């Protein structure tokens, strides 16, 4: 829970008393490699703040092809937000690629915290703003057909993950072949 | 300004006194057809809430090819948010397709309003949440290679714009040819 406090205080300082009232809304959960936190068809009950580990959020199309929406690691937030915010069945999967721990927060908890503490509403708004920017960047990257640019944006977004994520998934995220990825790697060393 | 109040009160009611303190942060601006509100290279100083009119947000790649990020109409918000939030030069263009009016808000105004009024911080958070969901949906739509699905999502997102936006731009948004678009239209009547 100390990590949670640090995470919040990167945005806004809270008093001990405030933090005591915030803590009960979060539950901590260990996640094993290959374990799924969200599966298509289930309702996404939680959003997850990653304490440690690496995760992959993906979408399976009607032909069973996987499309990676995002990777997520320490301090990132993730969920199927369409499902989470609308309380509808999920369209996406969230799976663990490297074992770790996450903090879980329900939508009800999120709303209650926001109403109770202006500081928490601020915290959520700022985090959401950062998330919004990341998504707009992902859209531009998807719209552009330049593998070099996608690669550059990926390296920029996930500087710590380049060596940790199997190349197979990076190629998939970028929408390029393994050969093209190797060329991009060697060109950017 | 009455529209602004209505727009805010769709999320949270405000008193007359509160609204008087909110109003000065917004300026109203008329926009003509083909007029640009944001151009690549400029800093996006404002976010815009659309009172009336239709707008197109697009990105121009290095080859000069246009990629449509979103359309926007009444009550939608738009900006180059990467530029707006980070105070960096814009990568995108915002252009008017049908003349109208917008309410302009600076980032400084946005932050001041959020700090001064918990209600406004709430309002921005809720709007941002809706925007976040729309972007996540756009990403899934882009990742999926099914024109039918993209078309369905487009129709769902912009039910009022189907007849108002030139087909050329709809085809571009969906990443399909004019012929494919005609087929999708006739198949969904």
Automatic annotation (TrEMBL), chains A, B:
Pfam families: cNMP_binding. Transmembrane segments: none annotated. InterPro entries: cNMP-bd_dom, cNMP-bd_dom_sf, RmlC-like_jellyroll. Residues 34-69 form the Cyclic nucleotide-binding domain. This is Crp/Fnr family transcriptional regulator. It comes from Flavobacterium panici.
